[in-house]
Amino acid sequence: MGSNDFHGVFPYLVSPIDEHGAVNAPVLGQLIDHVIAKGVHGVTPLGSTGEFAYLSWEQRRRVVEVTIGAANGRVPVIAGVAATTTAEACRQAREFEALGVDGIVAVLEAYFPVTDDGVVTYFTEVAKSVDLPVVIYTNPSFQRADLTVTTIARLAEVPNICYLKDASTNTGRLLTIIDMVGDRLKVFAASSHIPTAVMLIGGAGWMAGPACLIPEQSVRLYDLAKAGKWEEAMTLQRSLWKVNQVFAKYSLAACVKGGLEMMGFPVGSPLPPQSALSDEGRSEVRNVLRAVGAIVD
């Protein structure tokens, strides 16, 4: 895949793990077939919704291996790489490249604070370790070492760092980034943003866990935005925003996995010590999925 080919809706896939700690390959394959059939433009294993922080390296590797096999070249596979050390992140990236992924989403996990220079070095070294397009990921809610606008502008100079996935809620910051880096770095939104608004200011699409549950609706929203049919897009966006509002109340992995269970995908519960959805949460998620047409009783 070329460095300018990534656009549209990329569901952040869940990681179905059975009671023995093995990746449930048939269920993951069924989910991938489902979202591809609904028109998504790519899939991302080991994002936040994929619970990467709770998986062993063997589980992570298997999730990516199964995803590549199930996608079977139909859409790009962009795998999540996350580590506290630069060396380990580079190792993961090289392993995933050898497996056959089309790109990397790079996450910096930090225990101690990291300087801006350290952040730049981490992402630069990950990018240099592979011959793949790299998406850098920023999430100020979870990351101890966030990426400042200045840091992002510096990273946009690295040849194969071609994309940014931003999980802040600051759309104004996104516009600043887009204006600053121009075509050097395409921006993907997360579920914390209003996708239509991000598309309006020049976004390339969105990478988000809820797209596992509403792939068809998400693709329709993207198509409307790309066609400049903003009034229709906002009408659909308002209905889909209810999904984001419910997810903001509960654990993301619990919501997506719980919703998928309701839709007939036995993906299991979030990995401990995370909690599954409460009865109240299940009711809210079911109601909102029914309202947007993801569940038909």
Topology, element by element:
Blueprint lengths: L7 E4 L13 H13 L19 H15 L6 E6 L2 H14 L3 E6 L7 H13 L5 E5 L10 H7 L5 E6 L4 H11 L4 E4 L5 H6 L4 E4 L6 H12 L3 H18 L4 H11 L16 H13 L6
Q: Order of SSEs, N→C? A: EHHEHEHEHEHEHEHHHH
| CATH fold-level topology | TIM Barrel
What is the helical fraction, as a range of percent?
40-55%
List unreliable stretches of 5+ residues. none
Q: In CATH's first tier, which class applies?
A: Alpha Beta
Number of helices: 11
Mean of the pLDDT scores? Answer: 94
Q: Beta-sheet strand percentage? A: 5-15%
Polypeptide structure, described:
- With 297 residues, the protein is of the alpha/beta class.
- The protein has one domain: Alpha-Beta Barrel (TIM Barrel), CATH 3.20.20.70.
- It is 45% helix and 12% strand.
- The protein has eleven helices and seven strands.
- A seven-stranded parallel beta sheet has the order 1-7-6-5-4-3-2.
- α7 links the parallel β6 (186-189) and β7.
- α3 packs parallel to α4 (116-128).
- The termini are far apart.
- The mean pLDDT is 94.
Question: Any key phrases for this structure?
Answer:
297 residues; alpha/beta; TIM Barrel; 12% strand
Entry summary:
The chain contains eleven helices and seven strands. It has 297 residues and is of the alpha/beta class. The protein has a single domain, classed as Alpha-Beta Barrel (TIM Barrel), CATH 3.20.20.70.
